[in-house]
């Protein structure tokens, strides 16, 4: 079989790899139909995630079909169409019993495309299949469903829920990339009074409007002043950091109100200075997190009934064997306008989706 292999910072290739096989009785083998690329994959390729060993197949998001299961898998069977979650979970350890699956101590957590071979391949071995794959509703298109493997639960759990978004809140989302856009879409489920999206790129700000932002701001034009104007000088109730850069994190601290919540979602590859000399007296709640995917079944039900706007985030599609080209498009999003790049399924040509 073939897979997309990390060979070290700046080095990767779509190549022959060993076939995925059952290694533990709780494993399942999934034939991959659709995958997507993640900003975390770009961090790995830059060398920001040293845990990833050269020779690892990348990817932690997929939709596919079960082709084989271990003898202790009872929740799915060959022929089932499933979503492969970005998080695997043993289901037995103390964190798993608290639904903190990302902190699994029994061999789960973020493993796919990180500690073991991932989903950007023709087949993938999924550990702890009963908790780590989700049967798909028949009406849900694969290229929409794959966005629920990571970005939607990440945005909802680490951004919206950790940020304690409530009805009537003023919410700022810094970073209108895929996760930031998903944060805007899922924050709207909780009826905030106003959502402001902040980014550098005009196309992403336009996408933020389509996903439900009430207003947008260019990060170079002092958005903290706009927040003060819109909140009578108080600041935002909730600020969601969805970039992963020291500058964006610092901007977030300047926009949140006293007693407010700052939810960090971005993956940081560099140290960030926390200015406690300015923040200690402001009663802020700062949260960080790796997604647990405990919300995935709920989000799947909502997507199946059209309550989640997943399709507008998919801007480019490729066949699976054009992985290297897809990565190039995704890595140069400022030039290509890429949001989510999806590979596989029935798509056979590059598609660039234009703004509505």
Automatic annotation (TrEMBL):
Tagged with keyword Oxidoreductase = yes
Which Gene3D superfamilies does UniProt cross-reference here?
A: Medium-chain alcohol dehydrogenases, catalytic domain (3.90.180.10), NAD(P)-binding Rossmann-like Domain (3.40.50.720)
User: Which keywords accompany this UniProt record?
Assistant: Metal-binding, Oxidoreductase, Zinc
InterPro entries assigned: ADH-like_C, ADH-like_N, ADH_Zn_CS, ER, GroES-like_sf, NAD(P)-bd_dom_sf
The protein's required cofactor(s) are namely: Zn(2+)
Q: Which Pfam families match?
A: ADH_N, ADH_zinc_N
Q: Which branch of life, at top level?
A: Bacteria
Positions of the Enoyl reductase (ER) domain: 8-343
Q: Does Transmembrane helix appear among the keywords?
A: no
Q: Which residues form a coiled coil?
A: none
User: What family does the Swiss-Prot or TrEMBL record give for this protein?
Assistant: Belongs to the zinc-containing alcohol dehydrogenase family.
Q: What is the protein's name according to its record?
A: Alcohol dehydrogenase catalytic domain-containing protein
| Taxonomic lineage from the root | Bacteria, Bacillati, Actinomycetota, Actinomycetes, Kitasatosporales
